[in-house]
Amino acid sequence: MPRFSANLGFLWAELPLPQAIRAAAKAGFDAVECHWPFDHDPGAVRAALTEAGLPMLGLNTLRGKPGENGLSALPGREAEARAEIDRALDYAAATGCGAVHVMAGFAQGADAASTFNDNLRYACERAADRRIVILIEPLNHHDAPGYFLRDATQAAGIIAALDRPNLRLMFDCYHLQIMQGDLTRRLRDLLPIIGHIQFAAVPDRGAPDHGELDYRHIFAAIDAMGWDRPLGAEYKPGGATEPTLGWMKTLR
Ligand SMILES: O=C(O)[C@H](O)C(=O)CO
Ligand SMILES: [Mg+2]
């Protein structure tokens, strides 16, 4: 039976993070994850997680200046990228969060590729002694045109080349349906390197109860593969979150 993680970057995004954590617990989620929680006191976040009895599965490195979408593949920006990796790892350690998504940024070409690899090696080393997983996530070219990491094939190549036990793929069904499709086979083939799975309707990124993907099929297939960790609900509710949660009953 699938279990679910509320992505608090989108769900209950209007609430301070500790309150959003409590709202997710009340709604029946099994875990939470967030985008950029750094303005919230990590002590208060950890206390809310403990009170709610939920783990925090992941958070992202900060994106950089306005208009940027991560720094780790940007040649010449290594010092800033690593400072953001350190900040994210410190916050993850302080809140007991299990994974950090290292955001690549808008860049292309060989220099970007080697910069991303070097920064990922740094992140994996710094994360290892804290038992934190480093995630990389392809983003679709409509929402993030020019983003360095475009699809799962490219991400799998990076993970194989770097060969670090704590480097994994964030498999976001929304982005990968847009970029590559064939999700059932792709999930099965990539399962050994997947660190987290996220979902939303395609193409509007709404609740997973409409659109071109049938999540009844996808979640049953993921279940049959033996995946039992919570799946990340990273969709835009377009208003209050509670009225959009009907899918939790039908997809469970
Ligand atoms: O947008 C997404 O899908 C990512 O998961 C994210 O956290 C920020 O881009
Ligand atoms: Mg995602």
TrEMBL record:
InterPro entries associated with the record: HyI-like (IPR026040), Sugar_Epim/Isomerase (IPR050417), Xyl_isomerase-like_sf (IPR036237), Xyl_isomerase-like_TIM-brl (IPR013022)
Superkingdom of the organism of origin: Bacteria
Segments forming domain Xylose isomerase-like TIM barrel: 21-250
GO molecular function: hydroxypyruvate isomerase activity
Active site: E137, E234
Keywords: Isomerase
Coiled-coil segments on the chain, per record: none
GO BP field: glyoxylate metabolic process
Protein family membership: Belongs to the hyi family.
UniProt xrefs under PANTHER family: HYDROXYPYRUVATE ISOMERASE-RELATED, ISOMERASE
Protein name: Isomerase
